[in-house]
Known about the structure:
Layout: H1 2-59, H2 72-81, E1 85-92, E2 96-99, E3 104-106, H3 111-117, E4 123-129, E5 136-145, E6 151-160, H4 162-169, E7 178-182, E8 188-190, H5 201-204, H6 209-214, E9 221-227, E10 233-241, E11 246-253, H7 254-285, H8 291-305, H9 313-320, H10 324-449, H11 456-494, H12 499-531, H13 540-645
Antiparallel strand pairs: 1-2, 1-6, 2-3, 4-5, 5-6, 7-8, 7-11, 9-10, 10-11
Amino acid sequence: MAIALIPLFVSSIYQINSYRDEVTSLIINRQKEVAEDKAEELDLWLRHRVDELAKISNVYPELKSATINDVVPILQKIQRQYDGIERVVFADKTGNSINDQQQKINLTDRTYFKQAQQSDSIVVSDIITSKTTGNKNVAFVLPLKNEAGQFIGIFGLMYNASGIETIVKDIRVGETGYGYLVSKDRVFLVHPDAEKVGKMFEELNPSQLSLFQETVFKKDNGEVEYVASDQTERIGFYQKVPLTNWKLVVTGKKNELFGGIEASVITTAELVAVTIIIIVIVAVFAARGFTRPIEKINHLLSQTRNLDLTYDPSTDRELNSFSYEFRSMADSLIKTRQLLRDLLSEITTTANVVDNHSRNLSKLIGDTAISVDDIAHATDDLAKGASEQAKDSEQAVHKLSDLSEKIRLSVENSDTIQSEIEGVGKANEEGISAISDLKQAVKENVDATSNVGLQVDVLDKKSKSITAITDMIKSIASQTNLLALNAMIESARAGEAGRGFAVVAKEIKKLAEQVSNHAEEIENTTSDIHEEITKTKEIMESTKGVILRTSLASEVTEGKFDKINASINRIVGKIGSLSSSIMVVNAEKDIVVSSVESISAIAEESSASTEEISASLQQQANVVDEIAKSAQQLSEVADRLKHTLEQFRL
């Protein structure tokens, strides 16, 4: 019988070891999941701010040409416009910087400034303490380069590191397990023990430096078992944060994580050993009458070995009916089975974890639905803005066409004015010719008058006629002078279009002045005729023809000046039409400007809607990522539960 118990003992030991290995794997995998999830969450936090810095630099391209003296308004506008930014910093290539609070600091000793001088991409600093506020920040720095690719300074955003600290400090493993964050230079960035933050790893735990250099500081991820600075044995899992090469370590006390397992294994082993010993003793000393109790206990042990923990009250009653020795063995066996039932209780706890993940998944799916609704609304706004923009654009096209037609009419009017001005020039030339003839006739009249001294009475009458004619000429000259002055005034009002006409009007004014001067000469000549009245009587007949020619020349002159007057009137009319066209052009121009302003406003609305869509899509992407993680966790936990529960019959 003792030999028959050996397989039972071996099987029990094997199952105990298998259970210990499985639970150990679950604990390590749990640490791994926490480290991976939190490292990814840290990386997303960092990348979101890198993307925000790149976006701001694109919105404000003038930063590349800004200087310390004129950049502050831009920095202050950025700080007001974007939430979560602690400080906005600008520095030139010498390290002289200024922030949105107009505080000036030299950054040449800062590591991130040195890195930016040698980099073409955004630089992310470790967690640093601000010299101006004392807060813990992370600097996101964009190197500024000129067209030749030369370093000319930096533009940076300072974010409070509380978000990173919250992510790390929320890590819990067991009762006292925690997480901490170290930089690639082995400096503690975040740790539950604030005194360790900012110190080197080798300064706090030099004995474990070699181990960490071969694991944590060398590899991207993995398991590490070490002795902490407080001399406690710990086991943990480390994971790299991709963007910064920081290492997140999730750790817990070894005796705390595995103490329960070891105690359970030892207790179970002891119970199995006690049971076997009891069975051996009973087998040696018991009589054949004890076969039934032994078989019953053996059957129950076999059920336990096969993970059949079904509770049967009748079995307990039957075991209690045995003798004292068998009852003791039965009690031990019952306790062993009860211990296994407790293990199943832990599995039930794991099932509750699955349920919690399911709830989180449902919540995340709800958030995704909300994000999709936001995207739909933003898209509708964008479509409306685009439609209104199209209408205003069409209206602008029609107004511009009308404006073009008005401009064409203005050009035609200008051509007409040019033609009229040419007519005035010709009439002016003819007027000059007529006046020349008049001068010649007057001269001949003067010569003839000297020979008609005897025709005093007739000459007296004719001299009066001459005087009347000269008065008329002076009147015409005066009117012509007035018309020329008015024409010059109207041409000045017409601006550039009336400049040519102003030249003609000026020449006409000169001509009128010349005519007036000649009329005065005629008056003087008539006075001389009166003095020589006695000599003109003999040649009065000959002077009639001269006077006739003088009269005809005067009539021709008057006709030509009438033409000039008519041309001037037509020019004035055309200038009025031109002025009206220009006024219409101006009015249409205002409408076009208004349409363009409306288009600009709609374009701004479209831009705002596009930004909303972008933000909503980013939120949706994050939610989908979280859903994927929760789904993965649910899948893995469900598989483990299924595998474990299939081994038990309750």
